[in-house]
TrEMBL record:
STAS domain boundaries: 6-62
Name of the protein: STAS domain-containing protein
Membrane-spanning parts: none
Coiled coil location: none
Gene3D superfamilies: STAS domain
Cited InterPro entries: STAS_dom, STAS_dom_sf
Amino acid sequence: MTTLLTLTPSRRPDGVTQLTAVGEIDMSNTDTLATAIETTEGPLVIDLTGIEYLDSAGLSVLFRHVDRIELIATPLLAPVLEVSGLTGLTTVHGLGTP
């Protein structure tokens, strides 16, 4: 069964595309996330503040695109983003202490 994930693209005031993700990212829906990232040209900001769960399959998709993405996340995701090393490879906003 596919876990619910909603992806909404928008354009930020600076012209950069933003992809807002809501739900959970796991192996059942990473193809959807990968397609959304791969079909967006140029730099991309991915807003993960609406994500309640992110597994290693989701991290793998993000790692493949660290050269062109920035992330917005909540302190809830901080441990997984930090332990995985993703915070050292791309800019991650919003990881202040809870």
